[in-house]
């Protein structure tokens, strides 16, 4: 499976990483090389095998559905690049 | 002997006897760190915190209430959240981030009285095998045999370099595909990745959640046993951390492995294998046999597919985990030009904040999870992962107690030597270690000898799930038999 420039552009967009148009051919070829390496997986007979969901057989623990943490908005916002009036601030999203 | 050169066990005994204080140990390490800028191992130093913790530890030791780790100065990989102290995962995208919370693993260590010297270099987001992708620049291996500077391995390269150069008594590391064991092997120290679920992942910056585990990087197997015991705990804040009792690992180092069955997997004998590695492996096998173990040839037929499966599963999980770095809640945010909106903010922030290898893996992960390719890549890789785990289950069912393999395909290579290589060539460093993460097993790297050039080489032992105590005992026997005592000559 080789990745063309359009696919590379689409993947970069889905990943929300800006890639300059000039860099797309190199990116496409790098991603293609990595995928070629992964093609080996096609040789394996996986008939009847369930995809692994948990590496150790375990049942997730249950607990009461109650609030156990919180109540410190100033700590939550402490590292924000832009926080105002108790909220994270971002560029305008609604016209 | 300089105090910074002590092992944890030696320091613990000297502290208990009152021969040294934690402040003295800590000052010895701090002065070594000051003189070791050339190694670029410590990237955020916390001397004031260290001395305050050391004074508290000394008070506690005097009062007679002192767990084994009390007063022991440690380095912490930059991946662990440390309250009020820079935590960046060696990435520009987390520049300036100071967590308001402490990771469970480091909290367990501080509760036991251990002392934090600072944060250690690593590959960005733990993605790499040479510590060349850090925003801090390369960490450097204290081992040197010619004019070249060598990699300490990765991703826990700063941890390995710091322990090997005696800048600290031990360090924390994390291992997603070999990131504790490969750097340990490259620097002549011990590193163990415990069973998946043994150690809490809470507060450890996530790379690939189904594979990540933290573990100790130490100067001896005994130290690994002591420190691992303190790091392990059941943690309600990590739903995958297991509610099992943590045994006294150190007490399990009996030195007796008579009658144990050691598996030698034929699939790990690669074409064109380095002759020094092959000899080391044969020597290690003979040592375990001499100690009374039975050597059994085994087969792990899906080994060949571990690397491609890993390089689907790990980037897939990474692409999802790293979606949180969007310039909104913490870290770097790109400056926007007039007319640019929130989508531009995300895409510019991530392009500026993530280095090339992280961008590559996030995009590969995005691709293998995208509509139309999910089944062909991601689901297939998870099925192959199930088969890799089954291979191990079958040999353990045959009565195998531990498996002996090389830790790495080569000794440490020169920094920059892989700069123009295909990314896949770098991924091959993990060939002997990734299977263990995919199967969730415990694995340990033990320094066993020097190659022809005089660089350290390690062997890996793989254990049964939850049997870290037994695994450490095998490693202890191997360590004693190999008698590895070489240290890097100080040039820094």
TrEMBL record, chain A:
Enzyme Commission identifier(s): 6.3.5.-
Matching SUPFAM superfamilies: Glu-tRNAGln amidotransferase C subunit
Coiled coil feature spans: none
Pfam families: GatC
Assembly notes: Heterotrimer of A, B and C subunits.
Similarity field: Belongs to the GatC family.
Function description: Allows the formation of correctly charged Asn-tRNA(Asn) or Gln-tRNA(Gln) through the transamidation of misacylated Asp-tRNA(Asn) or Glu-tRNA(Gln) in organisms which lack either or both of asparaginyl-tRNA or glutaminyl-tRNA synthetases. The reaction takes place in the presence of glutamine and ATP through an activated phospho-Asp-tRNA(Asn) or phospho-Glu-tRNA(Gln).
Name of this protein: Aspartyl/glutamyl-tRNA(Asn/Gln) amidotransferase subunit C
Organism: Thioclava dalianensis
Lineage of origin: Bacteria, Pseudomonadati, Pseudomonadota, Alphaproteobacteria, Rhodobacterales
Automatic annotation (TrEMBL), chain B:
GO biological process terms on file: translation
Residues forming the catalytic site: 77, 155, 179
InterPro entries: Amidase, Amidase_CS, Amidase_dom, AS_sf, GatA
Keywords: ATP-binding, Ligase, Nucleotide-binding, Protein biosynthesis, Transferase
Signal peptide feature range: none
Reaction catalysed by this enzyme: L-glutamyl-tRNA(Gln) + L-glutamine + ATP + H2O = L-glutaminyl-tRNA(Gln) + L-glutamate + ADP + phosphate + H(+)
Amidase domain segment(s): 24-472
Gene Ontology MF, one: ATP binding
Domain of life: Bacteria
EC nos: 6.3.5.7
GO cellular component: glutamyl-tRNA(Gln) amidotransferase complex
Function summary: Allows the formation of correctly charged Gln-tRNA(Gln) through the transamidation of misacylated Glu-tRNA(Gln) in organisms which lack glutaminyl-tRNA synthetase. The reaction takes place in the presence of glutamine and ATP through an activated gamma-phospho-Glu-tRNA(Gln).
Quaternary structure and partners: Heterotrimer of A, B and C subunits.
UniProt record similarity statement: Belongs to the amidase family. GatA subfamily.
NCBIfam families: gatA
Name this protein carries in UniProt: Glutamyl-tRNA(Gln) amidotransferase subunit A
């Amino acid at each position: 499976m080789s990745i063309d420039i359009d696919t590379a552009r689409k993947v970069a967009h889905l990943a929300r990483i800006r890639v300059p148009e000039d860099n797309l051919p190199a990116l496409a070829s790098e991603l293609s090389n990595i995928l070629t390496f992964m093609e080996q997986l096609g040789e394996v007979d996986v008939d009847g095998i369930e995809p692994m969901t948990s590496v150790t057989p375990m049942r997730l623990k249950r607990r009461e559905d109650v609030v156990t943490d919180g109540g410190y908005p100033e700590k939550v916002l402490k590292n924000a690049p832009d926080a105002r009036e108790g909220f994270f601030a971002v560029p305008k999203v609604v016209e | 002997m300089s105090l910074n050169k002590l092992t944890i066990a030696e320091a613990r005994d000297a502290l208990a006897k009152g021969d040294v204080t934690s402040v003295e140990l800590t000052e010895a390490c701090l002065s070594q760190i000051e003189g070791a800028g050339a190694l670029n191992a410590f990237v955020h130093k916390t001397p004031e915190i260290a001395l305050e913790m050391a004074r508290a530890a000394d008070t506690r030791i005097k009062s007679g209430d002192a767990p084994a780790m009390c007063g022991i100065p440690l380095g912490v990989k930059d991946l662990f959240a440390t309250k009020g102290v820079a935590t960046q995962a060696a990435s520009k995208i987390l520049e300036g981030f100071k967590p308001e919370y402490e990771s469970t693993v480091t909290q367990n260590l501080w509760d036991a009285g251990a002392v934090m010297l600072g944060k250690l270099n690593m590959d960005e987001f733990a993605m790499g095998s040479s510590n060349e992708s850090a925003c801090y620049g390369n960490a450097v291996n204290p081992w040197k045999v010619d004019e070249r500077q060598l990699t300490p391995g990765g991703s826990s390269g700063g941890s390995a370099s710091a322990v090997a150069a005696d800048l600290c008594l031990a360090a924390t590391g994390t291992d997603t595909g070999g990131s504790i064991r490969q750097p340990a092997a490259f620097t002549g120290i011990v590193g163990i990745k415990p069973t998946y679920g043994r150690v809490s992942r809470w507060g450890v910056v996530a790379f690939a959640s189904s594979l990540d585990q933290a573990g100790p990087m130490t100067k001896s197997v005994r130290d690994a046993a002591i420190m691992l015991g303190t790091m392990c705990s059941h943690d309600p804040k990590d739903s995958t951390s297991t509610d099992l009792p943590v045994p006294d690992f150190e007490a399990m180092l009996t030195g007796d492995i008579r009658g144990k069955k050691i598996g030698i997997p034929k699939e790990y004998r690669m074409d064109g294998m380095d002759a020094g590695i092959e000899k080391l492996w044969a020597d290690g096998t003979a040592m375990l046999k001499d100690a009374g173990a039975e050597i059994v040839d085994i087969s792990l037929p899906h080994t060949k597919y571990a690397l491609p499966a890993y390089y689907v599963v790990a980037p897939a999980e990474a692409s999802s985990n790293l979606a949180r770095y969007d310039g909104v809640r913490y870290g770097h945010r790109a400056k926007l030009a007039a007319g640019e909106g929130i989508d531009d903010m995300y895409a510019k922030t991530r392009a500026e904040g993530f280095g090339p290898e992280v961008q590559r893996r996030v995009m590969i992960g995005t691709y293998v999870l995208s509509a139309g390719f999910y089944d062909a890549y991601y689901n297939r890789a998870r099925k192959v992962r199930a088969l890799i785990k089954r291979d191990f289950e079958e040999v353990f069912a045959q009565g195998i107690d531990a498996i002996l393999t090389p830790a790495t395909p080569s000794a440490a290579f020169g920094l920059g030597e892989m700069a123009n290589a295909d990314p896949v060539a770098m991924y091959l460093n993990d060939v002997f270690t990734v299977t263990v993460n995919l199967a969730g097993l415990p694995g340990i790297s033990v320094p066993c000898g020097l190659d022809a050039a005089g660089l350290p080489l390690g062997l890996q032992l793989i254990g049964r799930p939850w049997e870290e105590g037994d695994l450490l005992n095998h490693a202890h026997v191997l360590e004693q038999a190999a008698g590895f005592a070489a240290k890097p000559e100080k040039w820094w």
